Input
Amino acid sequence: MSTDIEPMYIDCGKHGKRVAAVLCGHLVKPEGEPLGFIENSSVPNDLQAWCYQCEAVFEEEDGMTEKFREFNQMSVVCVNCYVQAAQYHNVD
Output
């Protein structure tokens, strides 16, 4: 896999124009109990992560099935929001 992915941008209401990232819908708002944070890409311009519950469904389904996608509720966020979610939800 190439690491030369061109970044996509999003206009975040909180942080302005930033590089886009993807989180499961469960991680979008840093509140409540930390849910765990599993990064699914190590490519700098392809940031993706989901919570421990999503990981369990991913493993049960053996991949990105329709059931997984519905549970995951993928959300596009800016890189700053991604980092804040990582800091809040990372339980390691």
